[in-house]
Amino acid sequence: MNAIDTNILIYVHDPRDKKKQDIASQLVVNLPDGLLVWQTVCEFLAASRKLAALGYDFNQAAQDIRRLMAQWTTALPSWKVLDRAIALLQRYSLSYWDSMLIAACLEAGAEMLYSENFSGYDDIEGLKIVNPFLMAEE
């Protein structure tokens, strides 16, 4: 499975950076075996409200999430994810929320996470982390 971070979903709907929007849109549309992490959904719905001034409202965001829920596997939170996140916090220099996202991906069996927030990390405990915007520059 392949997961995406909140920032990727936001860029899909944020027209202020056309290049990132195009890359994020193509990734989401063509993502094989997608994994939608609960935390990503919650963060996206909260952050999408900032796009209202750009013509993307909360109702659209909720519809888009429902569509992804129907297409991708959903990873729901569990106590096991919390325990694993705590272990990741102790082992790596990650924020709490980044540790939770990585833990959820690992517990769900994800092979790859697309995000621009993990510079310095290409792999954490077998989860490959890819910045799709850097890939486009190569």
Q: Notable features of this structure?
A:
Rossmann fold; alpha/beta; 7 helices; 6 strands; 14% strand; 138 residues
Short description:
By secondary structure, the protein is α/β, with parallel strands linked by helices.
Explain what the structure shows.
It is a single chain. By secondary structure, the chain is α/β, with parallel strands linked by helices. The chain has a single domain, classed as 5'-nuclease (Rossmann fold), CATH 3.40.50. Helices cover 57% and strands 14% of the residues. It has seven helices and six strands. Strands 3-2-1-4-6-5 form a six-stranded mixed beta sheet, with helices on both faces. Strand 5 and strand 6 form a beta hairpin. Helix 1 packs across helix 2 and helix 3 runs antiparallel to helix 4. The chain is globular and about 40 Å long. The mean pLDDT is 94.
CATH superfamily, by name, is 5'-nuclease
Strand order of the largest sheet: 3-2-1-4-6-5
The radius of gyration over CA amounts to 15 Å
Unreliable stretches: none
Question: How many structural domains does the protein architecture include?
Answer: 1
- The overall pLDDT, averaged over residues, is 94
Beta content comes to: 5-15%
Q: What is the N-to-C order of secondary-structure elements (H for helix, E for strand)?
A: EHHEHHEHHEEEH
| Strand element count | 6
- The CATH architecture can be given as 3-Layer(aba) Sandwich
Molecular shape: globular
Ends apart, CA distance between termini: 24 Å
User: What can be said about the biggest beta sheet?
Assistant: 6 strands, mixed
> Which bin fits the share of residues in helices?
55-70%
